[in-house]
User: Fold these one by one.
Assistant:
Number 1:
Amino acid sequence: MLYRLWLLFFTFARIAALVLGGGLAMLPVIEETFVNKKKLLTAEELLDVVAITQTVPGIIAANAAVSIGMKIAGFAGALAALAGAVLPSFVIILIIAMLFPALSPDNVYYLGAFAGIRAGVTGLIAATALKIGKKTLTGRFEVIAAAILLAAALYGVNPGFIIVTAVVSGVIYCRICAWRVAKAGNGGGK
């Protein structure tokens, strides 16, 4: 148990310290560590964590840390993962906040660093979206729902409305599938 707590703390601390871009950008590292190397989560469990962390309020990285920590080592695991995810970010942002007033807004190094960071983060998020899409968009319903909801997001529809719509449409779809299975099991209702 203690090994798992240290693993959660140090893995999330390493991710928080080295991965730029927040929660979505850290997913490939989480998958590599907890799914591929340590085999403490399945790919499906990680997808469930991603879905949950995207729909609840709060910081994605902290939500993911708590969810994964809870799955792997219970409440103590959630605390260890959360501490690991928060501590490096807190220290880094504190240092940046202390140095920020001294930076000139037209400093080429400052501007270049942030331009590079923005491009890198965009690439990491795009790669994560592609990986999740390959695992999630496996049927006609998923593809159609994702396309409609992506269009809604691009047209500026409120993200809360998109999430609620996705949940409701998923529940309706599953109810229809269950009804079809039950109907087929009854000989087509004859």
Note: Residues 60-99 form the longest helix (40 residues).
Number 2:
Amino acid sequence: MSQMVLKVILSLLAAYLIGAIPSAYLFARFWKGIDIRKFGSGNVGATNAFRVLGKLPGILVLIVDILKGLICPTLIANFVKIPQMEIWLISLGITAVAGHNWTIFLNFKGGKGMATGLGVLLGLAIKIPSIRVVLALTVGVWMVIFFMFKFVSLASIVAGICLPIFMALFNQPLPFVILGIIFCLFVAVRHKSNISRLLNKEEPQVRLSFLNRKRFL
């Protein structure tokens, strides 16, 4: 096995393991001594951490999950220099999100990948300026849908659908369009239960206290 092949394998393994760190589960264990999978939605992600643990641990989980994605196309990518750098960056990003979604540390049952996917896009935007407008628009769509309807899941699904569309509209190279499609599929697969609850009008909304007008009356 050549040294280059070994570096590629080790880098992909590192990306998966970093993505697989179940931050919400760990924070719940250390913060409250509970298994977060048995509370709230049961999901091992930032939204459920906010719901079950509170604002501060929820914010910390969100930051850690974003950093997991950010590290892969920035720091780990520097470990291997190959001519097809775009494909390499994308491969690391997809592997990190897959690690978060299907973590080996929790029997391959992880989160939904939105925060880690955002981290990957941030990492790509640092290296590739043309990605920045796609990232800004995708985040903007998420925020508009969330503040209009107060469903994190609906905002995530719509943003996931828009990502490959924005990639194509802004003439990103084919590998980045494919990345957008894969991330969109990840979002759809991981939000199947949310889609069912949305259709049945059973999905819980996120209530933001600072948007509650009664507090100002």
Note: The first helix runs from residue 3 to 20.
Number 3:
Amino acid sequence: MLVLAVLAVSYASSMRAFLHQRAEIAELKAQIDERKAAIDDLEREKKRWQDPAFVQSQAREMGYVMRGETPFVVLKDGEPLTTGATLSDPDDLPERTPTAWWVDAWSSVELAGHPPKDEPPPATTIDGSAEEQDEETE
């Protein structure tokens, strides 16, 4: 009996070590699979960056323009709209009473006949300061 008990204890400790090693091997194989998947994703991303059309689209998203193109920035209340900006719902706008088209046309004719006098002329350069624009008008 004593011999059988000693053999059972020695086999039990060996079996415990065997099962622990099997679990560790399974965990390491899972890590290897995850890293292979990450490597595959990076390889795909690397191939995408080899495509000139993809590089151009990424540059446009960052705000770059091609040579000869004129960039425009949409402003709302003097501030550029961000990429996350949302438009308001037309149903939420206040109700306006519609006016006839000839009312708008006539106000345009009146404005053309009597333009505002005290407004400065439009700026000729975008990057000029306000002082430079004042000197140009004088």
Note: The chain is about 55% helix and 5% strand.
Number 4:
Amino acid sequence: MGELLCLEHVSFSYEGGVEERSALEDCSVSICSGERIAVLGGNGAGKSTFFLLANGVLCPKRGTVFFRGEAVGRKKQELNRLRRGVGLVFQNPDVQILGGTVEEEISFGPMNLGLSRKEVRRRVDGAVEQMNLESLRRRAPQYLSGGEKKRVSIADALAMEPELLLLDEPAASLDPENCRLLERTLETLGERGLALAVSTHDVNFAWRWAQRILAFHDGRLVADRTPEEFFSDAGLLNVCHLEQPLLFRMARAMKICPLPRTAEAFERAVAEKGEKEGEQP
């Protein structure tokens, strides 16, 4: 897998108040094509700041961001190249949505790239199809449900045809049905080769979906591990104020190996374990 994004010793502080507040300190990490990454940590841990730096909304106070091996500075051309390659879906879709209709909203980004009308239409049609928004094309996005707004905000990012998509707590405020729809959407996008990084508080989702865990605490990247390595480290989980996923705990208690990632895999493993134990004399 080729490297898409790389942060080298990146630090950022928000100004204001009596003194600057360090939001991210000495962060070094890279993300490659096709990866599925869960970004974990408590509120204020640095997850959102990491995403804003990775997308070029914020510029580092120290350190360097690279996209496709090229350093990204403060020049408009460099930042636009980063933002085209790395899409960002904000936690609150109302922050992102500006258009009068869903179609106008999705076309906003491609039009700002100076693309031809034909190319803008192709990208909008593709994003609408991917996010199943055909019936909402002419609707005003401000009056859609929370789940529908989330789909529109993801379509916004997809219309830019990024290679990496960052989603900042995309399941926030969604009901269980829309959470399931979101997860199926992420599965589909991953199957199409898009690299995905999802900020979440849901350790059960992280366990069943992610290939890799990035964990932040107090403005620092404290872990870059596989899900099994991360959730096996009780001390690190305590530092990050996180718990082991339910399936992880149950499978470990039952001594099931390899550890299943989904409920269906867990049920199969339990049935197979029962059959083997029944065959023993």
Note: The chain has a mean pLDDT of 92.
